[in-house]
Amino acid sequence: MEDKKQQIIQKVISKAWEDIKFRKQLLANPVEAIEKLTGVKIVLPEGKELVVVDQTDKSKVYVNLPAEPEIDNLELTEDQLEAIAGGEQMMWKNLTDSLFSTLKNCISL
Question: What is the pTM of this model?
Fold first, then answer.
């Protein structure tokens, strides 16, 4: 099931890279564009909106600000609890590595 979902996402991204008309449709109405391309139904949680941002301009470095995690509902593994107890800030390392790697590579210290 997860593999199928991954394939659908890859199909949408590939199509947007190769077809400017589809990319414009995806930006204007992402749910409709994805459903039309893939034949799958997109069901968003109530009150949520799907936003697609075009980050294909290679002359720019993009940074997406993620939503703050809901710490009250966060369940940590034993390893994560031990790391935090030892002073490690795993969440920030994982977050910066996965979301901001391009920006991280541009920082000169």
Answer: 0.65
Could you report how far apart the first and last alpha carbons of the chain are, in Å? Answer: 44
Q: How far apart are CA 78 and CA 65, in angstroms?
A: 28
Distance CA 102, CA 109 (A): 15
pLDDT digits (tens, 9 = 90+) for 92-105: 556 566 655 655 56
Residues near 31 by beta carbon (within 8 Å), at least 6 away in sequence: 42, 44, 50
Cα–Cα distances in angstroms (integers) from residue 75 to residues 3, 71, 98, in the given order: 25, 8, 20
Q: What's the pLDDT band for 39 if we cut at 50, 70, 90? A: very high
Of the candidates 38, 50, 48, 32, which has an alpha carbon nearest to the alpha carbon of residue 13?
38
